[in-house]
Structure formats: structure tokens, C-alpha cells
Design brief:
Blueprint lengths: L1 E4 L3 E7 L4 E5 L10 H10 L5 E10 L2 E2 L1 H7 L7 H7 L2 E11 L2 E2 L5 H12 L6 E3 L6 H10 L7 E4 L14 E4 L1 E12 L7 E8 L2 E7 L5 H8 L14 E3 L12 E3 L1 E13 L12 E5 L12 H4 L3
Parallel strand pairs: 6-8
Antiparallel strand pairs: 1-9, 2-3, 2-4, 4-5, 4-6, 6-7, 9-10, 11-12, 11-16, 12-13, 14-15, 16-17
Length: 305
């Protein structure tokens, strides 16, 4: 069974006679950050049900992860304004408890049938994630949905029990190739470990992400095109590591080896927040024949800004 892979926050909505709680995948109570979804759940999900799904925010017909992130860092005073300006939606894709009965051992197709029955009288902001067993239809979704911010497909076995482990599902992400500016690397210039990518945003070359670890052959090939950065380089030699966990979440800062800007081709998924990639890029090759000044934010990414 094929489903869209949503770009949002995974949430479990737990309804009891006394409470409605929205739990993150890591077990954090996010109820207060989503009063709009909590109210909708209380109106449309009876006590005794646990629904698994994703909180998302739409902006101009595209998923907006950056707006979702702001929910968790906005003060209690300003949260109502944010909720009004950027309302959230909840997309349900599984049911773990129905009428007080634990149904995690039911096969997925049966849980899905019960979920569809529950959602038959829902209205926004509660939605049911579409699913299909038709490979041709799923392929069309994969090809056409990335423009809306859908990351790809999640493929589930119709007979699977719910194990609470995402590794039981196959995820196929949509990726695209694009040019970015390598203006720094992590590691020595003679054997770079990762590319630090930049794009020109509002007239300024900004760090927008990094690549995954380079293979030895790719590192050697890239090093042949690198020269140390000249004075006046736009980036610092050390950056905070906590920025969207792009570099090393176990360290407070990351040291950069600054280099003269070089265009490189990378592969990226659709998770672009408007100013950075949230997932590691895949380095493909250097493009020394291209002028770094000519590299701009691609149109399909620029829509988020």
C-alpha cells in the first residue's frame, strides 16, 4: 500500500474521557503548540481512540515546514497570532486504538479500514492521508506531488502489524539535482570530508546545508579543484552546529575550511525550509566551468521564500 510521505511533525493523538494529548515520536507532549488540532480532535475523535499521523502547515498550496517549526519556538503570548495566521492541519495515516481496544496487532489493511470509517465525518483541519494499491497511481503521485512539498512515498505491507518502528516501512524520497556553491569544506582541503553548500539569498551567499560524507574517490577529485579562500571571504571559519542540526549536533561549533567559491552539482530531496536544506545533500561532481555568481536558488525552492 502506497502513501505520500508528508513533510511535517509526526504526531500521535491520544483521546481519553479526560484529556486530549498530542505526542511527538520522541514522546514529547506538543499539545499546547497545536491548540487548533487539539480542539479539532476533541470535536471529531471520540475518547478511546489513538490516531497516528502528521501535523503540517500549508502556504500557497505547498507544505511549509519552517512555519511548523515556529510553533515550537514562539512564546505563549504570541502563539495565538501564529495559529491564526498559519493554521495547522493533521493528516492521519494509521489507527492504534479504536473504542478502547488496542489494534496494533491488526494487519494494516484492517486498521486502515477502521481509520477510514472514523474519518468519514471529519472536516479540516483533520484529514485522511490518501493510500493506494495501484502502482501506476503511486508512480504518478511520486512524479507530480513534490511540487507541493510531498517528499516521496511510504510503502507499507497490507498485512503488517504496527511495530512503532519506521524501519518496517520502505520510504522512497523524490530527489532532484541542482547546482550550489561550495565555499567551504569540513576537513582538510587536501582531503575534504563534506561540502558546505551555499546559495545567494537576498544578495548574500549564505550557508544552506552540507553534503553527506564524501567517498574517497569523490574527495580526491574535489580536492583537485579547491584553493584556500582569500581574505574577505563571506563566511566565518567556525559556525554554530545546532542550526537545524546540519553539521554536528554533538558539538557546539563546527570548524570550516574556507575555499574559493566553486560550483558543485548535488542531489537534494524536497526538504528545503526557505533558507536551508534540512537533510544532507549528496555530492555528485565539481562544475569548475560555471561561474559561482550565476548560481541562484532554483525556482521550485524559491517558492518557499
Amino acid at each position: 500500500m502506497y502513501e505520500p510521505k508528508w513533510d511535517g511533525y509526526r504526531l500521535g493523538i491520544v483521546r481519553t474521557e479526560d484529556s486530549t494529548v498530542l505526542w511527538s515520536r520522541q514522546g514529547k507532549d506538543l499539545t499546547r503548540y497545536f491548540p487548533d488540532l487539539t480542539a479539532a480532535a476533541e470535536d471529531h475523535i471520540p475518547p478511546g481512540f489513538i490516531v497516528d499521523g502528521e501535523a503540517v502547515i500549508w502556504t500557497d498550496d505547498r507544505l511549509n515546514f519552517e512555519a511548523l517549526q515556529k510553533r515550537l519556538v514562539t512564546s505563549k503570548k504570541h502563539l495565538p497570532t501564529l495559529v491564526s495566521e498559519r493554521p495547522a492541519s493533521f493528516v492521519a495515516f494509521d489507527l492504534l486504538q479504536a473504542a478502547g481496544t488496542d489494534i496494533r496487532t491488526f494487519q494494516f489493511s484492517d486498521r486502515r479500514e477502521l481509520l477510514e470509517e472514523l474519518a468519514s465525518w471529519w472536516e479540516p483541519p483533520l484529514d485522511l492521508s490518501p493510500t493506494t494499491t495501484d502502482l501506476a497511481k503511486a508512480t504518478r503521485w511520486f512524479d507530480t506531488m513534490p511540487v507541493t512539498g510531498i517528499e516521496g512515498l511510504v510503502i507499507k505491507g497490507a498485512g503488517q502489524e504496527y511495530q512503532g518502528n519506521e524501519r518496517q516501512w520502505l520510504k522512497v524520497k523524490h530527489r532532484t539535482t541542482l547546482d550550489v556553491v561550495c565555499a567551504a569544506v569540513i576537513g582538510p582541503i587536501s582531503r575534504p570530508e563534506m561540502v558546505v553548500a551555499g546559495l545567494r539569498i537576498d544578495g548574500e551567499l549564505r550557508i544552506v546545508g552540507r553534503s553527506s560524507m564524501l567517498k574517497a574517490s569523490a574527495s580526491k577529485a574535489l580536492a583537485a579543484h579547491l584553493t584556500l579562500g582569500n581574505p574577505g571571504h563571506p563566511w566565518p571559519t567556525e559556525v554554530k552546529s545546532g542550526a537545524i542540526d546540519r553539521f554536528n549536533s554533538t558539538s557546539s561549533t563546527t570548524v570550516l575550511t574556507l575555499v574559493e567559491p566553486l560550483v558543485v552539482e548535488v542531489s537534494a530531496d524536497t526538504a528545503f525550509s526557505g533558507s536551508s536544506f534540512r537533510h544532507a545533500l549528496r555530492y555528485i561532481r565539481a562544475r569548475p566551468e560555471l561561474d559561482p555568481a550565476s548560481v541562484v536558488v532554483p525556482v521550485h525552492l524559491n517558492r518557499l521564500r
